[in-house]
Amino acid sequence: MRVAAQTLLLGATTAALAQEQKILGNFGDAAQQPLGQVGDAVRNPLEHITEALGEMPAAAKGLWDEMSLLVPGFVEKAGNLISRPKSHTRKPDSEWDHVVRGADVQGMWTETDGVKHRKVDGPLEAYDLRVKSVDPLALGIDKVKQYSGYLDDNENDKHLFYWFFESRNDPKNDPVVLWLNGGPGCSSMMGLFMELGPSSVDKNGQPTFNQHSWNNNASVIFLDQPVNVGYSYSSSSVSNTVAASKDIYALLTLFFEQFPEYSEQPFHIFGESYAGHYIPVFASEILSHKNRNINLQSIGIGNGLTDPLTQYTQYRPMACGEGGYKSVLDPSECQSMDNSLPRCQSLLKACYNSESAWNCVPATIYCNNAMIGPYQRSGMNVYDIREVCKDRENLCYTETAWISDYLNQNKVMKALGAEVDDYSSCNTDVNRNFVFQGDWGKPFHRLVPDLLKQIPVLIYAGDADYICNWLGNKEWTEALEWTGKKDYNSVKLEDLSLENNAYGQVKSSGNFTFMRIYQAGHMVPYNQPAGSLDFFNRWIGGEWWRA
């Protein structure tokens, strides 16, 4: 079994810090190495932090001293910045069906009426895209055309794995979608095999056809990002969302260069959980390039973490019976969360104001301990408030172990061209790097108003999720300052139905849409496969955003 017990709360925006005795400082092999160890010496953890974040500002010292009193072991936990490369063997270019050089693509020119234009812009010289045709018969996963491979950032030794499935319907005209799981640090192969891909994996390791796959009417790319997640690897690390956005732009640019038959079709980005951070940044990066071959039409975020300051106000209501399900906590625990909220908010405001890791790390640690910790200690599934977490070693879902075992088979890795020695669903090192570089608490919702001026934005949420609950997602969409705020907030939720049966609610105005999906946890397609395919098809068809 490849998923370690310590990854219990990964696969989403983790509550890693809420259960710090299990998550922080106890990561399998990492637990054998003293904090901050270099060679035979063991350094003070604060030295390790300073090396990673730079010199502590004088204004931050009081805050860190306070956190050390409020959260036992705070400095030691914050100093646990680890990033270890994954073991791998890179295959020669001759073993791939196609290799696209970024330098060649960036150098291409088009000509209109005698005027030359650069086909794409952006720093692509360091990037290559390697492509392998995947034989569907070899793995038994769907019958459609498939490609897998790596985006290579040769300058920084980063290699991102992707797997593309063509639409089952009309690939010449159907849109293309990029799917991203969250974590940060969890593989999108989980989304593929557990939620919306063409097959799931059963307990015997056999692929099972998914009739509700999102590639029924769209071609879908599943991407393992950032590096050192899933089949992706690097000798370095990516620990913030903005850095990862450059890789996404390069991947899509080179992919559509190799396969221009997909480049003119509408393109959408969908994802869940920490993708609430990723997607606004990735979309903004793409739209910043005037000359591009990426026809971005919309974005969709499911049960995402986008505006922590607003969303954290809804943890107590969700845990205490105000989200449509019975209370998980007793009144004293609910009161304790209410008492902790003002301090949490003040810390997050400081993070928002400075966007400095020296402010954002304490905010994340304090708020997760205060607002997520009480719920997690109840033993209930943070991804589904209706269930006890029965499989603590596998994100509360045994299916994650089945997926990991399947993707570690030699025949599967060979068919896909995987270059790592082993696959794991989530990488705890990557998760901690994002948390302890301050990325978690940052206000990425501030990018959404500008996106709304250019493309439609969908926010959807399964209403049984706790970790990125529907109350918080609805709250931040209504708090967002944008030109259409008044009109959007005046719209009431209406039934979202399939065959006259309501499976959720929707409100939409201008380019902004919110959906509440009934009886679904953090992973909406897992719990509501037919409903999720219905709203997905209706969304990419433009029902809520085309006049």
UniProtKB/TrEMBL annotation:
GO cellular component terms, semicolon-separated: fungal-type vacuole lumen
Propeptide carboxypeptidase Y domain ranges (all copies): 1-107
GO biological process: proteolysis
GO molecular function: serine-type carboxypeptidase activity
Keyword check for Transport: no
Pfam annotation, one family: Carbpep_Y_N
Catalytic activity as recorded in UniProt: Release of a C-terminal amino acid with broad specificity
Assigned keywords, A-Z: Carboxypeptidase, Disulfide bond, Glycoprotein, Hydrolase, Protease, Signal, Vacuole, Zymogen
The enzyme's E.C. designation: 3.4.16.-
Keyword Hydrolase: yes
Annotated compartments: Vacuole
Enzyme class, broadest EC rank: hydrolase
Leader sequence residues: 1-18
Role of this protein: Vacuolar carboxypeptidase involved in degradation of small peptides. Digests preferentially peptides containing an aliphatic or hydrophobic residue in P1' position, as well as methionine, leucine or phenylalanine in P1 position of ester substrate.
Protein family: Belongs to the peptidase S10 family.
Name of the protein: Carboxypeptidase
Source organism of the structure: Xylaria multiplex
